[in-house]
Each structure stands twice: as structure tokens, then as C-alpha cells.
From TrEMBL:
Gene3D superfamilies linked: Cytochrome P450
Family matches, as Pfam families: p450
InterPro entries (alphabetical): Cyt_P450, Cyt_P450_B, Cyt_P450_sf
Organism: Streptomyces exfoliatus
Lineage of producing organism: Bacteria, Bacillati, Actinomycetota, Actinomycetes, Kitasatosporales
Superkingdom of this protein's organism: Bacteria
Protein family according to the UniProt entry: Belongs to the cytochrome P450 family.
Descriptive protein name: Cytochrome P450
Length: 401
């Protein structure tokens, strides 16, 4: 796996041509596997003999994973993403009420208000930049980051620092010393935020989690509290940030598909779902581990092997989505549902929020700026650092209007 990332789709197509499961070499020459095929990945994600807990990661338990390993946080952070069974259900229950369809719909007016203000800011940035503005910086980032921080009761003054640190944590090309420092700084910041909330609780999710910790340490430990905040902040904005960015890129490159939406022959929810399938915001997500030697689609995955979930590959698997799986098509019918928000017990808890935020953001953007287009060719956009996130680092656009 190339730690620097890059567009995954050509590589995915080559790997899929060989089979649904592929051996990979992770940073540090750690042997792993990637499940790429849609059907194989769907089955693997819900298999009873596949776990998330770090105690099942053979190389880690044998001491072969150093502190500065760029993917160590994915494997070891305490919380939902590294818990199984009853522990996973306990942690998920603590935050699930904040992400129900009803609670998410209640957030819609706030998301719409934030979106309107951000569009004004995008227009101002373009006016001061010869008609060009970075849509990712001025629009796709502050919306989901602002919403999740508001849900958690995090002071807006922390947002830029939280994004900078979380970007270093999820990148797979971060140098070891810098990765250790970024993790330490991020955990320290989250501990300070939790400390402030403990001293002055509010009507927010962080305060509710602290109350659960203080009420019963068996319900939520201190490391689990910090790990849960880490997960909610990173997953709560990085995925939606990439989703909105990738959807804008797709629509600018496929004006005929945008015309379908403006003509009422497709809707913004269709744009969100097709973007999730066609250009998943997460390319390869770490980690799951077979708890016994497991054969997946004819390939043996030894017990304790770190396995990547190949969401970007599964989204373009022709066996599931048809021979034109690499085509962005809002009218696509009859294809299997995508897996880009997960499947099984660890299905993305924030999926309703991500879908709503993205649909609101896209509709407002192209309603306000119907002629919006990229300011540079797609091939010149700098790619996301690493093979976990799948997007570009900047998105210069000309809003027009």
C-alpha cells in the first residue's frame, strides 16, 4: 500500500481482476490483506469470526508494531471501532441516541443556516481570489466539523487545531515522530475539552458521556471517553468532508448528471448515494482480524492478519454493479447497494447525519451557484495523503454568479 495515497481506482481495478481478496504490504513491511470485492466484503464485515479488538492483531501482540506506526491509532484507540460484542454494544448505545433519524432531522434547520452562511463566505473568498476559492476549505470542511463540534459542545476556537491533528492521525504517510506527537497533542486536547465540560456541563453529547463515566465507571472508562470523542470528531467530519468534495468533483465532471437533478429527474439523495458508491470517501479502512484461519472467496486469511476494508474497490466492482460500474450514473438501477458506510455491527453510526449534511450542502451550493466549476483540471488536484481517506486536499472552484 502506497503510504502517500493517490487515486485508488486504477489500482483497484487491477487488483479486482485478480480476485476479491488481495495480499498487501502495510507500512513497516507488515503483511496484511485487503477485501475488495463487494460480495466478499459484505460477508466479511458481518462474519462472526472477524473481530476489531487489538488483542487479535498478531503483529501488535508480538511487539512488532512501534508507537510511531502510522496506522497504530486505528488499531489501538479505545472505543467503538476497536470493541467487539457486548463492549461494542455498550459503547454504541451511549451515543446512538444522538444520531437517530429523528434527531438528525431536527438538526436540518441548523445545518441549512450554517450552509447559507458558508456560501456567503465562499462567495467572499472567490471575490478576493480572482473568482477562485478553495471549496474544501471554505465549505466542505467547516460544515461537518462545525456541526459535530456543536453536537459535542466543543468551543469553535478548537476546530482548526482538531482538524489539523486529526488529518495527521489518519494520514498513512506521517513520519513516526510526528505521528506520536500528533496523537499525544490530540489526546491532550480532548482530555482538556473533557475536563472543561466536567467543570461546566452543558446540553451536549460530551457532557452526557462524562455523566455516564461519573455515574458508572463500568459503563464508560476514561480512556473510552477520550477514544469516543476522538472517533466522533474524526469520523464526524472527515468522511462528510470527503463526500461533499467528491460529489462536487463528480458533478462538475458530469454536467449531464447535474442536469438530471436540476430537471427533477434525480434528486440530491441520489447524488449522495452514487458518490458514496463511485468515489467512496474512505478507500481502505483499517482494521479487522480473523479470529481463526478464514477462507474468503477462495483466499485464505490467516488468524490475526490485519485486514483492510476496500470500500473504494467494492463500489466499482463490476460483478456487483454491472459492466459500467466505473461510470457516474444517478439513474443507476438494479445494482447492489454500496458498502461505503460499512455493513454489519460496525455500520457507520453517523450515516444519517452524513447523508443529510451532504444533501443539504450540495443542493444549496448548486442552487446558489448553478455554473460552479473546477478552476483547474481534475488531473492537477493534489490527492489526499494516505490510502485511508479518498479525496483531494484542495478543490479550487469558480463559483460564478
Amino acid at each position: 500500500m502506497d503510504p502517500a495515497g493517490g487515486c485508488p481506482h486504477a489500482r483497484n481495478a487491477r487488483l479486482l481482476a485478480e480476485g476479491a481478496v488481495a495480499p498487501v504490504i502495510l507500512p513497516g513491511d507488515i503483511e496484511g490483506m485487503a477485501v475488495l470485492g463487494h460480495d466478499a466484503l459484505r460477508d466479511f464485515l458481518s462474519h462472526p469470526d472477524v473481530a476489531k479488538g487489538a488483542q487479535h492483531f498478531t503483529a501488535l501482540t508480538e511487539g512488532r508494531i512501534p508507537d510511531g506506526w502510522p496506522l497504530r491509532t486505528f488499531a489501538t484507540v479505545p472505543g467503538m471501532t476497536t470493541a467487539d460484542g457486548a463492549d461494542h454494544r455498550r459503547l454504541r448505545t451511549l451515543v446512538s441516541s444522538a444520531f437517530t433519524a429523528r434527531r438528525v432531522e431536527a438538526l436540518r434547520p441548523r445545518v441549512e443556516a450554517v450552509t447559507t452562511a458558508l456560501l456567503d463566505g465562499l462567495a467572499e473568498a472567490a471575490a478576493g481570489g480572482d473568482g477562485v476559492a478553495d471549496l474544501r476549505r471554505h465549505y466542505a470542511l467547516p460544515l461537518p466539523l462545525g456541526v459535530i463540534c456543536e453536537l459535542l459542545g466543543v468551543d469553535p476556537a478548537h476546530q482548526d487545531r482538531l482538524h489539523r491533528l486529526s488529518s495527521l492521525v489518519v494520514a498513512t504517510d506521517t513520519e513516526p515522530a510526528r505521528a506520536v506527537a500528533a496523537n499525544r497533542e490530540l489526546l491532550g486536547l480532548l482530555a482538556a475539552i473533557a475536563g472543561d465540560k466536567a467543570a461546566a456541563p452543558g446540553d451536549d453529547l460530551t457532557s452526557a458521556l462524562i455523566a455516564a463515566r461519573d455515574e458508572d465507571g463500568d459503563r464508560l472508562s476514561e480512556p473510552e471517553l477520550i477514544g469516543t470523542l476522538l472517533l466522533l470528531i474524526i469520523a464526524g467530519h472527515e468522511t462528510t468532508l470527503n463526500l461533499v468534495t467528491n460529489a462536487v468533483r463528480a458533478l462538475c465532471a458530469h454536467r449531464d448528471q447535474l442536469a438530471l437533478v436540476t430537471a427533477g429527474r434525480a434528486d440530491w439523495a441520489d447524488v449522495v448515494e452514487e458518490t458514496l458508491r463511485w468515489d467512496s470517501p474512505v478507500s481502505y479502512f483499517p482494521f479487522r482480524y480473523p479470529t481463526r484461519d478464514l477462507t474468503v472467496d477462495g483466499t485464505l486469511i490467516p488468524r490475526g492478519t490485519p485486514v483492510l476494508a476496500g470500500y473504494s474497490a467494492a463500489g466499482r466492482d463490476t460483478k456487483a454493479h454491472g459492466p459500467d460500474a466505473d461510470r457516474f450514473d444517478l439513474t443507476r438501477a438494479g445494482a447492489a447497494k454500496h458498502l461505503s458506510l460499512g455493513h454489519g455491527p460496525h455500520y457507520c453510526l453517523g450515516a444519517p447525519l452524513a447523508r443529510m449534511e451532504a444533501a443539504v450542502a450540495l443542493e444549496a451550493l448548486f442552487t446558489r451557484f448553478p455554473d460552479l466549476d473546477l478552476a483547474v483540471p481534475e488531473s492537477e488536484l493534489p490527492r489526499h495523503s494516505g490510502f485511508v481517506g479518498n479525496s483531494v486536499r484542495t478543490l479550487p472552484v469558480r463559483p460564478g454568479g
